[in-house]
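User: I'll paste a sequence; please echo it back and then give the predicted structure.

Assistant: Echoing your sequence first, then the prediction.
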Amino acid sequence: MLLTRRSIGQPVARVGDVLTFADGSRATVHRETVYQWNDASLADAYARALWRVVALVSTPASIHCVVVPGVRRDEVLANPPLPSPVDADLTAG
């Protein structure tokens, strides 16, 4: 309903950006789905729920995320290198 009323939008500012992680690996942003959270445990729960959906159409071992408490997304992206994607293993939870 919100989309049809154009009350929310899909951000595209970082689509196409190439992110470089601390371990030297790189990834291209294909879609922005990152939200800001005030509570790291809520962010982790959201990421785990999203992992289950993405795993249906992806190779599960290729899906990674890192929750960095107290740091906003744009701060992390402005000061690479990003945390290594192997820092978080959602397959276990």
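Helices lie at 40-55, 73-78. Residues 16 and 29 are 5 Å apart (CA to CA).
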